[in-house]
Amino acid sequence: MPRATRSSAAAAQAASNPLPANGTTSALPLEDCSVVASGTFLAFSHATLQKNLTELGAKFTKSITAATTHLVATQDDFNNDSAKVAAAKAKGLPILKIEWVEEAMKTNAHPRDDDFSHQQTSKKRPIAVVGPLTTDAGKAGDGNDAATDTKKRRTAKGTRGKATAKAPDLDAKDANLEDVKPKAEEAAPAKAEKKSASDNQVAQSADLVVPVDEFFHLSGKQGFVVYIGDDMTIYDASLNQTNASANNNKFYKVQIVVNSRKKQFFTWTRWGRVGETGQKALLGDGSLDDARIHFDKKFKDKSGLAWENRSDAPKPKKYAYIERSYDPDSEDEDAGGKKDRKKTSSTEDSEPVETAECTLSPPIRSLVELIFNAKLFNSVMASLNYDANKLPWEN
């Protein structure tokens, strides 16, 4: 029996561990990938997906950044053009199915992106499933029949309701369920898509303008707004740290601001006790790269989290990141709600209100009046050094 040598052992090991599909020789096939997930998957939670991708060498982030290389999305998110899908399309990133991850786990290799790319399926019309026109003999018609087919297809555009009504009569085995959906159901409303976005820090419109901090004028500069990145990320963070036992209630604001000509970029910070102006600083040399460095450093120092992982659970003894909505529609709805409430209250005030006579016994009545005594409540809270005007949400 021939004696095994080192070269033969190495050859056997190479045969049992083939190279990844992308041609790299790394033991971790996805180590050059930065992956973002969009939507809710049946087979994986986001935490499980992050664990599996990390074991394959990939970096998993919550939102699309300049370093992102792949987006794994559900079919619904792809069809509805979710915020992450729209950002990935704008950057030209591959948008893949979850089977891409499963294939990488199965083969321990980098699968071909093209084999698992999403295809748009919700834009088809019911007319697409109708077969070609046939002659009386059951065969496809000639050129005249093609002209008739074209004319009928044009007519179908004006009678979508009829086409939709007839679509369910097709054979269930041959009909595509996506094809028989009315066009009104294919296009999801913009507001519903915005509410389904997992990260409110992503701008939903390229026309969005986020104002700077209310005390930014103290920096001596004018004409600046909050910077929105190429991936539509809004660089505006509000942090809070509350410790009731130590009577601490502090805020920290950090923003990247840019002038109207988009030639000057700075990092603006303001911090202090909630309810007070606090201290301020304007950082950077005017370049975007330097402003990004200062922004990422300040956010990491105060929260203990990287900016890409801002949605993670707050770190102990660190500032907590406070999400806010930049949707102007929500403000309009709130304003409308306030107007409606004002109208309702004014209508109610115009009607005389009759006060019911108390039928409680004197001891019970005295107890109830003590429980609902607002002046007594305020005095007790004041004795505990509780100031309602300095709550975390004021800033």
From TrEMBL:
Q: Which UniProt keywords apply?
A: Glycosyltransferase, NAD, Nucleotidyltransferase, Nucleus, Transferase
Q: Which Gene Ontology molecular-function terms are recorded? A: NAD+ poly-ADP-ribosyltransferase activity; NAD+-protein mono-ADP-ribosyltransferase activity; nucleotidyltransferase activity
Bias category Basic residues: which stretches? 151-160
Specify the domain of life of the species encoding this protein: Eukaryota
Q: Where in the cell is it found?
A: Nucleus
Q: Where is the composition biased (Low complexity)?
A: 7-16, 134-147
Give its E.C. classification number: 2.4.2.30
Q: Which GO terms describe its biological process?
A: double-strand break repair; protein poly-ADP-ribosylation
Which SUPFAM superfamilies does the annotation name? BRCT domain (SSF52113), Domain of poly(ADP-ribose) polymerase (SSF47587), WGR domain-like (SSF142921)
Which reactions fall under this protein's catalytic activity? NAD(+) + (ADP-D-ribosyl)n-acceptor = nicotinamide + (ADP-D-ribosyl)n+1-acceptor + H(+)
Q: Where is the PARP alpha-helical domain?
A: 357-395
- Disordered: annotated span: 1-23, 110-200, 318-358
Question: Spans of biased composition, class Basic and acidic residues?
Answer: 168-197, 318-327, 335-346
Q: Boundaries of each BRCT domain copy?
A: 25-118
Q: Name one GO cellular component term.
A: nucleolus
Xref: InterPro entries: ARTD/PARP (IPR050800), BRCT_dom (IPR001357), BRCT_dom_sf (IPR036420), Poly(ADP-ribose)pol_reg_dom (IPR004102), Poly(ADP-ribose)pol_reg_dom_sf (IPR036616), WGR_dom_sf (IPR036930), WGR_domain (IPR008893)
- Residue span, WGR domain: 223-319
Say which family it is in. Answer: Belongs to the ARTD/PARP family.
Name of this protein: NAD(+) ADP-ribosyltransferase
- Read off the lineage from the record: Eukaryota, Fungi, Dikarya, Ascomycota, Pezizomycotina
